[in-house]
Prior knowledge:
Two copies of one chain form a homodimer. The first copy, chain A, is mostly helical and about 130 residues long.
Amino acid sequence: MESVFEIIAEPNRRAILSLLASSQQSVGEIERRLRMPQPTVSKHLRVLRDAGFVQSTVDAQRRLYHLKPEPFQEVEMWLAQFRRFWSAHLDALERHLDRIDQPIQKKNKTRAPHRPNRERDKGEGK
Amino acid sequence: MESVFEIIAEPNRRAILSLLASSQQSVGEIERRLRMPQPTVSKHLRVLRDAGFVQSTVDAQRRLYHLKPEPFQEVEMWLAQFRRFWSAHLDALERHLDRIDQPIQKKNKTRAPHRPNRERDKGEGK
DNA sequence: CACGTATATGCCTATCGTAGTATATACAGA
DNA sequence: TCTGTATATACTACGATAGGCATATACGTG
């Protein structure tokens, strides 16, 4: 269970991650919402914790699990090398995302948006 | 081998995909560059092809494999739900990416760059 | 301290996926 | 058509992992 990719290959783990994306949850809450046996939940959480996807805080005898960003960034960075292949196909996806995330006019001086390599785009690209 | 995540969980397959990201390759080229036995390459390519990650074109007795975008988009869309968790941590990553990819001044009207949800960024965000 | 709740772990088994090896198929050229 | 090259597939064995079940540990409360 070395790479982040093997971690997210398991459907139940992805379900847990998606659930935690909404907010932190205790083991029992995960168990109930996902209709999963408790040992299964605990074992998957163990894997996720070891891989750095989640972290737990103690609340009496409960453990509240919440997401950690680093492993997702790792997936993101791997994915980045393929971005230029979507350029043609990406517009549809972006229209979708733009409907979720309000457009930012400029102001991207604070943080330049995350974009694929595009050596054209303006004769500037080397 | 149902999901795209299981497909990319295999390190050799990720290597093949990364290689194909530079340009299309024949089976023999992949075999030589990755130092992988030919049946292994063919079998992984079979899996990748069935999953829609790659497609082959015939060139005499060679088969040239190239990437297809759809499955990557699927990973991307799954990843999207976690984007807001990086917001705080993303700046470091972006400074890194900005060192690789030259900043684009504006001109992002052609295609709005792909960005995470960030409801702040300027009082504008909703 | 006994009991109930919450979570983690250990053991066993079944399943699945990969590598390895051999072999089959397809094509090109002499 | 024979030969060499390129790629795909079949078969086997092995290793890893997830699930099920039982049990252990931890904590809180009466």
